[in-house]
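Subgroup meeting minutes
Present: P.N., E.W., G.H.
Scribe: E.W.

1. P.N. recapped why we're keeping a running log of single-chain structure predictions: easier to compare across weeks, and new members can see raw inputs and outputs side by side.
2. G.H. added today's entry (188 aa).
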Amino acid sequence: MVHAVGLSIGLLMPATGGAEAEGQRRVHDFSFTAIDGSKMPLSAYAGKVVMLVNTASFCGYTRQYAGLQALWESYEAKGLIVIGVPSNDFNQEPDGEAKIADFCQGAFGVTFPLTEKVSVKGSAAHPVYKWIDNVLNGNGAPGWNFHKFLIGADGVSVQSFGTQVTPESPELTAANARELQKSSGSRS
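Output recorded in log:
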């Protein structure tokens, strides 16, 4: 499912309110901690298309790691940043960061950035997920693991893709291509 408000192609602009009041109007205004404990400021990805995916190792959709890795390998050089965000919000990621990293790298060869384990929904959600929920007018909390948010290179437009939309699906592939085209056009 893609949540879209206003524009027919599914792009959403942030609503005014909480995130803007806090001075956080773009995804690049936020930071994560990487799975290895280092800082991961999203400002490092300014001008790039960002795909945030809440992940879990013990989920029936865990095989989507392979598709996410393929996307990363195919599109990183063109400006797509895939970020895996481990979360135990659905009780399917009980392990700590070291085990999560070992699993992702060993089972799926994951080389795209992974964050430390965080909450992605509710009052304990990481601030970037609260911002996304605000941008999507209260419809931005992931309903399950492997929910994907495609954020334009402008750091503002957000498209939401549910768990069943695989990384290689035509719907997500087309949206990714549109965002990358827009970002390459804005750099010329």
